Structures are given as C-alpha cells and as structure tokens.
Amino acid sequence: xxxxxxxxxxxxxxxxxxSALTNHELAARVHASPPTCLRRVKRLTDEGVxxxxxxxxxxEKLGSSLTAIVEITLDHQATEKLLEFEQLVANETAVQQxxxxxxxxxxxxxxxxxxxxxxxxxAHRLFATQSNIRNVRSFFSIVRxxxxxxxxx
Length: 153
Fold this sequence. Notes:
This protein is α+β, with helices and mostly antiparallel strands and 153 residues long. It has 2 domains: 6-46, Orthogonal Bundle (Arc Repressor Mutant, subunit A), CATH 1.10.10.10; 59-140, Lrp/AsnC effector binding domain/regulation of amino acid metabolism (RAM) domain (Alpha-Beta Plaits, 2-Layer Sandwich), CATH 3.30.70.920. Helices cover 38% and strands 20% of the residues. It is built from 5 helices and 4 strands. A 4-stranded antiparallel sheet has the order 2-3-1-4, covered by helices on one side. Strand 2 (95-100) and strand 3 (107-113) form a beta hairpin. Helix 1 crosses helix 2 (23-30) and helix 2 (23-30) crosses helix 3. The model has no long low-confidence stretch (mean pLDDT 96). InterPro entries: ArsR-like_HTH, AsnC-type_HTH_dom, Dimeric_a/b-barrel, Tscrpt_reg_AsnC-like, Tscrpt_reg_AsnC/Lrp_C, WH-like_DNA-bd_sf, WH_DNA-bd_sf. This is Lrp/AsnC family transcriptional regulator.
C-alpha cells in the first residue's frame, strides 16, 4: 500500500469528483502549484493508485436501461474452473463488473443491457451453454437509488 500525504488525498478527492479538471484548475482546488500537482498526478498514476480516467455515461440515455445483478454458482471450483469463468465474462462487454465472492455463490456479476430480450440472449450465451454452471440467480434493478465510484480516503 502506498503512503499518501494530505496533498495526495486532496488531489485524489478532486479527481474522483471530476477527472476532467485541467492541471491548473486542479492545482487551484488543492492549493498547490501546477508543476507540483502535475508531478503528483503522474506519480499517483505511475504507482497504480490512479488506474484510469473515464467518462461515466447514463445508460438509460443510451438505450441500455436494464441492470441485472447475477449470482453464479459453479459445479466445480478448482482454480482453473474459476479462471475459465472469469475469462468467459471478461470478453462480454455487457458484464460491467465481476466479483469472486465467498460464502454463497462463486461470482456476482453486474450486467447492463438494453432490455429483457437482450438479457435472455446474454444469459443463454454465457450461462445456459456452460456445463460447469450449477445455478444462476438474477435480480433486476427497478430503481438505482445510489451509484458512486468514489473511494473514501
């Protein structure tokens, strides 16, 4: 774990709220000089604290309005079987997040698709055709009351 000082924390807090800030805007908000701020952001990126900067999109504005939270239980949990399943879902763009969990199911997936027919197609392709999947339990979001990407520092 990398040791973060107060300036690092202020920089990360600002970037988590808006990564589109210019270096000058960021420096002004964290009360540092622009060269210092630029060096710090580069170091945080080089050290892997900042893994990437992205735009968060509104799926409902883009025709992708169904969020499914899916629990997957495998028949066999040998390491190679777990990795095989992770590779299968890694190649599917509708799977936004994949967590290996314990206890309970082996995996929890967050899936974003256009509608129920799109979900059924994906479920058939990813789950029904796989011989090592014992159980699939799907939950469908009716209201997203909170969505946050910020990590508390």
